[in-house]
């Protein structure tokens, strides 16, 4: 079930990323090409989408850590170590972290692909 959720999340992330990249290319493609042709660094040209990915990754890390911390058995007796939910917090936290990292990596790949396609298309047209 976890693998299916991860694969479905990756498919959705790739689809949404492709739509976002296409929209971004149509709006800012010429400026992106000019900046790359002028010698700007790839990361500087794509600063906006990369900042969004960093914010998403940071927010997800906080949510995962907070949820894991709240659900783990801490020895105080408040949450029993025999509770199946408490016993699964480590695995659930790890799976959530892997899913978020995979989603951000997918979006990063879409940004890189979009930049290279835009540069190639604009370079051929001119």
Automatic annotation (TrEMBL):
Keywords: Membrane, Transmembrane, Transmembrane helix
Transmembrane segments: 6-24, 45-71, 91-114
Protein name: Uncharacterized protein
Organism classification: Bacteria, Bacillati, Actinomycetota, Actinomycetes, Micrococcales
Domain of life of the native organism: Bacteria
């Amino acid at each position: 079930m976890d693998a299916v959720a991860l694969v479905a999340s990756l498919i959705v992330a790739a689809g949404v990323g492709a739509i976002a990249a296409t929209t971004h290319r149509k709006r800012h493609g010429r400026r992106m090409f000019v900046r790359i042709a002028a010698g700007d660094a790839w990361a500087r040209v794509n600063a906006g989408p990369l900042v969004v990915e960093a914010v998403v990754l940071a927010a997800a890390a906080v949510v995962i850590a907070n949820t894991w911390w709240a659900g783990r058995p801490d020895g105080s007796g408040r949450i029993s170590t025999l509770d199946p939910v408490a016993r699964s917090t480590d695995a659930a936290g790890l799976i959530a972290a892997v899913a978020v990292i995979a989603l951000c990596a997918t979006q990063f790949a879409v940004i890189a692909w979009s930049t290279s396609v835009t540069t190639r298309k604009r370079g051929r047209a001119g």
